[in-house]
Design a protein that fits this description.
single chain; 5-stranded parallel β-sheet; about 15% strand; 4-stranded parallel β-sheet; binds phosphoric acid mono(formamide)ester; alpha/beta
Length: about 325
């Protein structure tokens, strides 16, 4: 079982979802196809009971609105049940219980675990101590693979393709795990061009640039001002105050970018944002047809339904 758990994929058998880098283009396309079926099922309003009797644990060591509630909605829409916590102060973590022990215990209670944790690598560690599938819902500044899958679904759904797109990532590219995960996923597609737009202090990590260079099939450039020339997707991000070791550094870059109607009203592009937003997208953008961030957050439900179904049907 240890060997089985250690290898995340055995042929087509997906055990855990920890990093987007663990899965290939075919698995991604399978998940996107399954998500489309789930969206159609949701629209049909028919009861779906394929996960009846199954229990999902949502373990949130960090705040969340969309990820936790869309996972819980997804599980309930599929006929399953949910347990979990949103505040470690009310759990035995506050008494000093280790992540490994918490996971050993909860994997005995449930069929699948979703975990968000402030430490990079925490979800991977959890998967090594769990007898049931573990899904990474964000580990520090590292990865957020289910966000990536719903981002890809949004691009495919709203633009009609992923190959050949030009995407601008704007804002906090240093700490933004959604950006990191999505860059790796896009590098699996053909002829993608990425423009990284950030202040010097929040540049995309060098190791991601190096990995993209090694891959060789993604064209990219770095800028410090918003430039949306020929861009298909403007992907805005929040400057993540909570990740700055020194708040004085945050004050220097706070509010540096604000996307307004004027940036996009004459452009053929979509605006995405993983949300929550603070002040980086003006509310006057919301009324434009290019604004797709609320659709994007809705797509979290069918995409997470697909992921839960696919992981649990292997059990
Ligand atoms: N996009 C995202 O992860 O949102 P939450 O932090 O609200 O889950």
């Amino acid at each position: 079982n240890i060997i089985y758990n250690y290898f995340l994929f055995l042929g087509d058998l997906m055990k855990h979802l920890i990093s987007i880098r663990d899965i290939g283009k075919d698995e991604i396309l399978n998940i996107l196809n399954e998500s489309e079926k789930m969206e159609n099922l949701l629209k049909s309003k028919k009861p779906i009971n394929i996960l009846e009797g199954k229990i999902l644990a949502t373990l949130f060591y960090e705040p969340s609105t969309r990820t936790r509630l869309s996972f819980e909605t997804a599980m309930k829409r599929l006929g399953g049940n949910v347990i979990g916590f949103t505040d470690i102060k009310n759990t035995s973590v506050a008494k000093g219980e280790s992540l490994m022990d918490t996971i050993r215990v909860i994997s005995g209670y449930t069929d699948i675990i979703v975990i968000r944790h402030p430490s990079e690598g925490a979800s991977r560690l959890a998967s090594e101590y769990s007898d049931v599938p573990v899904i990474n819902a964000g580990d520090g500044s590292n990865q957020h693979p289910t966000q990536t899958l719903l981002d890809l679904y949004t691009i495919k759904r709203e633009i009609g393709k992923i190959d050949g797109i030009k995407i601008a990532f704007i804002g906090d590219l240093k700490y933004g795990r959604t950006v990191h995960s999505l860059c790796y996923a896009l590098s699996l597609f053909d002829d993608v061009e990425i423009v990284f737009i950030s202040p010097e202090e929040l540049k995309i990590p060098k190791e991601i640039i190096e990995d993209l260079k090694k891959k060789g099939n993604v064209k990219f450039s770095e800028k410090c001002h918003i430039d949306l020339t020929d861009v298909d997707v403007a992907y805005m991000t929040r400057i993540q105050k909570e990740r700055f070791p020194d708040l004085n550094e945050y004050q220097k870059v706070k509010g540096i970018y604000k996307l307004t109607k004027e940036h996009i009203c004459d452009k053929n592009l979509i605006v995405m944002h993983p949300l929550p937003r603070v002040d980086e997208v003006d509310s006057n953008v919301d009324e434009l047809p290019q604004a797709k961030y609320f659709e994007q957050s809705f797509y979290g439900v069918p995409v997470r339904m697909a992921i839960l179904k696919m992981l649990l049907e292997n059990e």
